[in-house]
Amino acid sequence: MNELKVRAINEGERRAVYGLLAEALHASPPDDTNWERVERSFPADRTLAAFDGATPVGMASSFATSIAVPGGKTLPAAAVDGVAVRADHTRRGIVTSLLTEQLRDCVRRGDLVAALHASEATIYGRFGYGPAVLGQSLRIVNSRAVLRPEAPSSGRVRLLDEDEAIGLVPKLYRRIGPHRPGMIERPDLWWPAYHNRLVRGGGGEHRVAVHTGPDGEDGYVVFHTSNQQAPDDSQFKVVLEVRDLQAADPAAAIGLWRFLIGMDLVAEIRAPARPVDEPLRALVTDLRAVQTTGLEDHNWLRLLDAGAALAARTYREAPPVVFGLEDKLLPENTGAYRISADGATKTEAPAQLRMTADVLAMLYLGEWTASALAGAGRITVADPAALPAADELFRVGVRPWCGTYF
Q1: Residue 362's CATH number
Q2: Distances, alpha carbon 211 to alpha carbons 219, 249, 250, 349, 372, in Å
Q3: What are 299-337's pLDDT values in tens digits?
Q4: How is 225-265 classified by DSSP, letter by letter?
Q5: Which of 37, 42, 222, 293 could form a disulfide with 244 if both were Cys (CB 3.0 to 4.6 A apart)?
Q6: What backbone phi and psi angles, to 5 degrees, belong to 380?
Q7: Is 64 inside any structural domain?
Q8: Cα separation, 257 vs 4, whole angstroms
Q9: Which residue(s) pair with 52 in the sheet?
Q10: Do residues 289 and 311 both lie within one domain?
Q11: What is the pLDDT of residue 203?
């Protein structure tokens, strides 16, 4: 058997490595038409592969982006968009080799954090990733979802054709910007494989509507409808699924939801991975018309340069707390950090709270509290008085959300 080797791929290996990813996701390798559609979104740069001889048997890829953090700054980030191992080469340490090398590569490139959507929730914690963002899946029963009379009503919504959707939506997303912690920039290579594929029919006849407010276009929604039959119902019903809904402000978001809820012949709306604090129930007269059908780990985060990432976000007024961090894969992060309303700095002071890299990532955007994680045994507490202070330091007014598939 050949010795496995992990290295960056070259241009001529892109299609074979992408085919490996498709096969691992139980899809067909790309034919010429599909490859032409996705190749712009799958560059050789930032793609690592494990080779058995000349054959790729594992891969890990990312693209460069930036992520919003509490306080309004955006940090250089790596969006990990593909991790796969061929079925006949699993359980050989290939994922460990790939992700360890990927972390080092991202550090060399100057990324401060890495983010990913996890196919399985048990894989990535050992590499320092923590579930930093949660998302709720919503089901809205249209016949019962009547907006309250005091719900803001301004602007108008119009449907776009394919060319308009492909040309306008990327500009609008950039204009809206990552305004909530956890949101990321979408680089040019993201759009062909995700948005354009949906609009052009590769993802199933998605439509796009844009909201225009007093100051111009300020929100959009990508959605599709389908006829579905419930197991206990002989009647088919039209289900609308929200794929991507972005808005610059609450008024634009309400305008888009008003449009969707008011669509004729639609029985229900399904919206996966929406912000946990999205106030749809407060907008309708019957709050039970809006149901949460699931709560999932929406995005996982990994601090690559813990000192720089901690210093970049803001903190609430509270007594300072010294956090002790253990990071086995990136040992330069290991140490103690003093965090206060004035910022974060490395210190020689004894740690009041100790944790591993995945737990610090869970705290970083404000989704979890130190008290809850300590209660679950994830944080070692040397000074119990530090817990309420840590809770307040990391508290955020808006729950983090990503909203971008990758």
Answers
A1: 3.30.1050.10
A2: 5, 11, 12, 53, 39
A3: 999 999 999 999 999 999 999 999 999 999 999 999 999
A4: EEEEE-TT-SSEEEEEEEEEEEESSHHHHHHHHHHHHT-TT
A5: 222
A6: -90, 125
A7: yes
A8: 51
A9: 4, 55
A10: no
A11: 56
